[in-house]
Amino acid sequence: xxxxxxxxxxxxxxxxxxxxxxxxxxxxxxxxxxxxxxxxxxxxxxxxxxxxxxxxxxxxxxxxxxxxxxxxxxxxxxxxxxxxxxxxxxxxxxxxxxxxxxxxxxxxxxxxxxxxxxxxxxxxxxxxxxxxxxxxxxxxxxxxxxxxxxxxxxxxxxxxxxxxxxxxxxxxxxxxxxxxxxxxxxxxxxxxxxxxxxxxxxxxxxxxxxxxxxxxxxxxxxxxxxxxxxxxxxxxxxxxxxxxxxxxxxxxxxxxxxxxxxxxxxxxxxxxxxxxxxxxxxxxxxxxxxxxxxxxxxxxxxxxxxxxxxxxxxxxxxxxxxxxxxxxxxxxxxxxxxxxxxxxxxxxxxxxxxxxxxxxxxxxxxxxxxxxxxxxxxxxxxxxxxxxxxxxxxxxxxxxxxxxxxxxxxxxxxxxxxxxxxxxxxxxxxxxxxxxxxxxxxxxxxxxxxxxxxxxxxxxxxxxxxxxxxxxxxxxxxxxxxxxxxxxxxxxxxxxxxxxxxxxxxxxxxxxxxxxxxxxxxxxxxxxxxxxxxxxxxxxxxxxxxxxxxxxxxxxxxxxxxxxxxxxxxxxxxxxxxxxxxxxxxxxxxxxxxxxxxxxxxxxxxxxxxxxxxxxxxxxxxxxxxxxxxxxxxxxxxxxxxxxxxxxxxxxxxxxxxxxxxxxxxxxxxxxxxxxxxxxxxxxxxxxxxxxxxxxxxxxxxxxxxxxxxxxxxxxxxxxxxxxxxxxxxxxxxxxxxxxxxxxxxxxxxxxxxxxxxxxxxxxxxxxxxxxxxxxxxxxxxxxxxxxxxxxxxxxxxxxxxxxxxxxxxxxxxxxxxxxxxxxxxxxxxxxxxxxxxxxxxxxxxxxxxxxxxxxxxxxxxxxxxxxxxxxxxxxxxxxxxxxxxxxxxxxxxxxxxxxxxxxxxxxxxxxxxxxxxxxxxxxxxxxxxxxxxxxxxxxxxxxxxxxxxxxxxxxxxxxxxxxxxxxxxxxxxxxxxxxxxxxxxxxxxxxxxxxxxxxxxxxxxxxxxxxxxxxxxxxxxxxxxxxxxxxxxxxxxxx
Amino acid sequence: xxxxxxxxxxxxxxxxxxxxxxxxxxxxxxxxxxxxxxxxxxxxxxxxxxxxxxxxxxxxxxxxxxxxxxxxxxxxxxxxxxxxxxxxxxxxxxxxxxxxxxxxxxxxxxxxxxxxxxxxxxxxxxxxxxxxxxxxxxxxxxxxxxxxxxxxxxxxxxxxxxxxxxxxxxxxxxxxxxxxxxxxxxxxxxxxxxxxxxxxxxxxxxxxxxxxxxxxxxxxxxxxxxxxxxxxxxxxxxxxxxxxxxxxxxxxxxxxxxxxxxxxxxxxxxxxxxxxxxxxxxxxxxxxxxxxxxxxxxxxxxxxxxxxxxxxxxxxxxxxxxxxxxxxxxxxxxxxxxxxxxxxxxxxxxxxxxxxxxxxxxxxxxxxxxxxxxxxxxxxxxxxxxxxxxxxxxxxxxxxxxxxxxxxxxxxxxxxxxxxxxxxxxxxxxxxxxxxxxxxxxxxxxxxxxxxxxxxxxxxxxxxxxxxxxxxxxxxxxxxxxxxxxxxxxxxxxxxxxxxxxxxxxxxxxxxxxxxxxxxxxxxxxxxxxxxxxxxxxxxxxxxxxxxxxxxxxxxxxxxxxx
Lengths: 1040, 563
Description:
The complex is a heterodimer.
Chain A (H helix, E strand, L loop, with lengths): L1 H22 L7 E8 L10 E4 L6 E3 L5 E6 L4 E5 L6 E4 L8 E2 L10 E4 L2 E4 L7 E4 L3 H6 L3 H5 L6 E5 L8 E5 L12 E4 L2 E2 L18 E7 L2 H4 L10 E6 L8 E13 L8 H11 L3 H5 L8 H5 L3 E14 L2 E13 L6 E11 L2 E2 L4 E16 L3 H8 L11 E3 L28 H6 L1 E19 L6 E20 L4 H5 L8 E24 L4 E24 L4 E6 L4 E6 L15 H5 L2 E20 L3 E12 L8 E12 L13 E15 L11 E4 L6 E2 L9 E2 L2 E3 L9 E14 L4 E13 L2 E5 L9 E5 L1 E18 L3 E19 L10 E6 L8 E6 L6 E4 L2 E3 L5 E6 L14 E5 L4 E11 L2 E11 L2 E3 L1 H5 L29 H4 L6 E3 L2 E16 L4 E16 L20 E11 L1
Parallel strand pairs in A: 1-7, 13-16, 23-29
Antiparallel strand pairs in A: 1-4, 2-3, 2-5, 5-6, 8-9, 10-15, 11-12, 13-14, 15-16, 17-18, 17-56, 18-19, 19-20, 20-22, 21-22, 22-24, 24-25, 25-26, 26-27, 27-30, 28-29, 30-31, 31-32, 32-33, 33-38, 34-37, 35-36, 38-39, 39-42, 40-41, 42-43, 43-50, 44-45, 45-46, 46-49, 47-48, 50-51, 51-54, 52-53, 54-55, ...
Chain B lengths: L1 H14 L4 H5 L11 E3 L7 H17 L23 H9 L6 E3 L7 H5 L8 H25 L7 H29 L20 H18 L14 H18 L7 H16 L34 E5 L11 H9 L8 H5 L8 E3 L1 H4 L76 E5 H15 L4 H14 L12 H12 L5 H7 L33 H7 L8
Antiparallel strand pairs in B: 2-4, 3-5
Helix pairs in contact in B: 3-6, 3-7, 4-6, 6-7, 7-8, 7-9, 8-9, 9-10, 9-14, 9-17, 10-14, 14-15, 14-16
């Protein structure tokens, strides 16, 4: 691993040196220019760098009196730059004296932040917002926009799905506000609030990272309230790059990645395994299942993968029409053999203005196509547990017209009748190679936004936004003939089969708002009033079928000779084209599914600032969802925020110049949540039975036709909005021309009428659990963020960003049970190590949501667990569910990120460290693989175990064993997300080419006590996790 | 196009006066899911929808959910979907907790406690059973309410069918209450008169019994005096009466026999049912000619409207293609079969599903008269895998997975078609190697049980006359290929064993053991009872299961004594 990294860098070096030598420009005749540089207040500016445009690495600095002296060509152009000030570019024009007065760089303070339905200057923002502007390296390393959010802001916890190239991720902003309802933040792309994830697509995987201009994270209530109904869990607003004025500018980037699994599990090898079987399962049956091979199954399913991506963007202006087009492609190979994701995205943007800018039109269309092959994820666990003494392939003696060994020659567990043993998993390699599951997704999102400022009243804007978001997906799963899967299929005759799924998800939106901005200087007041309406429709539909695609076989097995006769079965030709269990009716009617959801909103916002010092924001939103009954479907969500820019107070003038910003913020607001259960929970509806569960009709005789019964679904007319009330207090400060900027926030979020799927009294309805409003939840947190440039010299700059967030999640009430007592727990996550061992995570009053629910393990003097011995909490002499205790939760208590960027001349070097404290993970792999009594499995199965100094041995009481807190491990970690090195040529080819080359290692190390492969497991249960890779990347970015 | 229309509509509305009401009309989204419908459609085809709603009641007994065999209508704490199938979840409590069957996988959560009779209220398997019973009760209530609401807009010619359906729903509901009262004692009771969404009040066992029996008696009376065969897969008066026989037989044991006449009622009603069947089948008894054929792929021929002797009074239909289920007969066969135990499900049961997780316990195996070579003359155990196949009779080390042939394999249901004489009809059998789901129907109540219940009512309660009782038992024994009993053989112990040999696996064993005082406690010990291999006594309060914790906590019930 380290070697590859080193070689890559050396290659990069060589390329670099070659390019630098070639591009070094010749020097011409020179004159001497001198002058003085002053600060805006008239003081001499010390250390201002004076460089020559287009002349790399050549320049001087002003001395203590602000004077400089430089030799340049008479037609050169000087650039004066100083941290915190606007750079100034001045042509020499043969002059020998040039004096300069610097102008304050207002960019940082005047940075415009995109918030809901409008923008606001960051200095005027009253809510808690964070802005991410990914640079080229960040964009190049990111597989998807999810990666850009990792560690970007305190309180934002992003857990990516290991090395899975599909790039899924779970994002939690300030802890989850809900239990069963969605905890995903709302994603808004160029003004279109997106659907949630659908199939392979999530809003954040559809957009090429290179194409993102900025991402705004709205965390607190007043900021999010304007998105009301879907904003309880925060909002991520993505703005893509737009065309700029001037000649076409082309950006090209290419990135190459090599990924290897960081670690694999240490399981017994063939010899060790044989040894264990002979000791712990020494019977003829078990011994008979041992082979002589030594197969490392993990090695057989993993690989070192190579991925690459390319992005081209062209932006400019043709006549009055600014445009930007971008195309990107990424070919991402996963580490599990057969896994692969190819993604192509295109984006097109036009942003013309008419009538002197009174009418602004912004049109966006984005499309993406993803073609991926999904591996059978079950192979991950199979590769751990599969008998290591078996070879990957066996040349089974097979005669007949099959013409190949039965079971595709994959070593399989075979019963006395020559059939496959079905109790355990199939050969892990066969699981991957025996099928091909491809998924193709097309998606498009776009909008037309028209903003019109009235001719006669330019302060009043009318804004109309029409948007859509469509995702279509198709998946095909082919099971190849004569593979173990095919022999294990419904017909059990080795025939190939195909299953197909088609799905479409749409979201259309109309929003209209009026915005009136007025500055009334006489009363030092600024007004910004907005009122609007949004109509959104979501619908989806899907259908699927499965079909037999080849002829099947008959097989005869000769147990004595261990050989098969396998011949084509002419009768099975009738099956081709049909699914198993198809009736005539089902053949013409494939299963379909679909539904529709409507959301309507009226909203308004009132921004007021007095004397650029006192800020007020008031937001009110009235939302309705078709998910709830007419009586409960409307929710009213208000928010108020106050800001005080102390730095603009008269008494603060003494500090001006050193203390740039000092702002206090305070806010309160309510947001709603309705994303739970199905699209209609209040109407009594009947589910129609699918063809394989029909029933004879009510007519005499056996030959009666079969009919599809109607199941009366449970429903709840009283289901209503879940509401989250947020308080937030924050402060923003900046000093030394913004060389140091600090912000801190405290928040408290109370959620009431929590939507959750919970048990209901037996006999009350036709099932035993329903979605109901059941309780309250509280999140309290503190966030702190600092960005600084501790060292700024002519050649060297150190930029540092550090953020830390602390969040405490606690369930404060659970209703719905008859006694509503404090002992009451709600199941959150079943125990994966034993399907019905009860929940391993529960919700309980006084504890965080998704807390672990375990027996306290008792340990022996050697530090190992005493098998079957747990703390008898109630002292009744036996161990049962009453002895379970609630302890630890999956969510981190503290998360931290440290970003460092060092710029030396044209070099840059970056390192990102991220830490998470107090997150716990149930190590299901250890729970499943540390018990020697499981060596001999159900049926003809031998299961491998972990290579460990300590094992459990008892077959009874494993129900308790898998609930031992021994398996709940502290998964706090410090991870190095990436180390990057880059070099930039600013002015190549006569100032027309900017070239940047970088290399990076992602995830080079992680420090943790957790004993699994990786401590970052979103669900808190480590089961079948896709290993997180160590990735070496090389990227190039060219701008011309 | 519609989307565009909507956009323009929305545009007009928004840009205009934002007329509130017009906008909000969009919010009334009808059910769009093509797999769902609402009762608004019922009036368009009253007969079709009425039939389909009724069929759901029966399907609820056969499968776990209506989205296929792997789906379940239960959402909470149900383990694998198939485990929550009605017949299977009842089997788990009625058969696995007795001397009949044991579960090889002691580490399947909740099962060890069941197998060793160590019941606790938080056992998930019990909660699953309770939930399934009450979900089915709810489906029945919902159906009756829906019909009574008039939403079907039934024409006159369907009024009688609707009335009959309501009676059927009440009979199926009574079956549920039979298990609820038997297993859980003071259980919840709710019928169609309660409001939608109300929590069933907990009743004493006596009150629940009185309600259930009164309902059955009334329904039976409504059906008139004579038995009319209902269509295949449906119930009629005879099932109502057969269920009453079950209730009456157990009334004394349950302590609900207020008038001390239940055994007599049991006898009388049983006689009526027996009389209805006389004249066909084995020796004109109404029993099927062959025991084995009752449990084969074509056993629907013995059910109502079948072409053979209709011994199967109530059946839960199953079909390998049309009505797939991981419960019922598929469960029974697959649980026993597995080549690890030397039973190939395809060869021995004609079904390609094998799970290797259930065996007969030693004490059950010893209830048969085995010849020295491991065969038996008793037809009912003739398919068993025994000593002759290399199986051990005991289950000394059934914990977990190790060992081979731990206990005899009690094959009973198969997926072979049978001729009337009990020989396998290969030609008409399904191709078992390609069947993952069984075609044989699950038998809920058979005429044989009625014969035995009558005999038992005589032995335990002195009802009827002893000579008829002896004849009844000897019909059963004769069909099994056994010698007749004399009146001296008519003891309580003997009838309990004979009943088990006839009805094993048919969800009756626990109930019968309790009736004879041999379930919990010390009077009868079998291996693994009490948690030790040789068996040990258990507290007598285990005769009734605890009310599951989640039921206590969500319904506010009191717990059964002892837990």
